[in-house]
Fold Cytochrome P450.
Amino acid sequence: MKEKKPHKTFLKWAETYGPIYSIKAGYNSMVVLNSNEVAKEAMVTRYPSISTRKMPKALKILTCDKTMVAMSDYDEFHKTAKRHILTNVLGPNAQKRHRCLRDGMVENILNRLHTYLKKYPHETVNFRKIFESELFGLAMKQVLGKDVENLHVEELGTTFSREEILRVQVLDLMQGAIEVDWRDFFPYLKWIPNRGLEKRLEQLHTRRMAVMNALIQEQKKRIASGE
């Protein structure tokens, strides 16, 4: 577990213990699901009965106390937010509307791969870097209606490049989510400070919210201008 790649550890254990098993972690017990069938039963069929759950300190901060659909309890917020996401981004009608954006993404990926091949015919290709960039661009277009090349963040007094926006909004969140606070496993010792972790999480959260607010303000300006 020290590698901070728990999915690899869980997969290895699944070979021994099967598709569902529990782990005793300090005061808490965690249940790990390692098959599509079991995960579907838990997250779809029985989700309402298990959705109210405790959150690690890191996720509680980074999700603004569960205000992300994947992390929220099954309540009115969850149902409303999920409905908006399905209607505007992930549902079948939304997917039809965004078809041209996905086609454009595929074309961009192919162009970038061909260009790289011509310039560096004998070097390995970093597929992740290309796919990551293009998928982020697609997400921005689907959510905001346009890709964002750079963004001035007034709260932080600096301008963020597209790569920096990706880092703050997506990659830092994923990295912070797996930060382990040992107090989560021993709640009766939560009065002991863990300032190093708390400071890192607060910095990630502050930067992310500042960038998000700047994106929202830019979107409001576009709407006000009639775009």
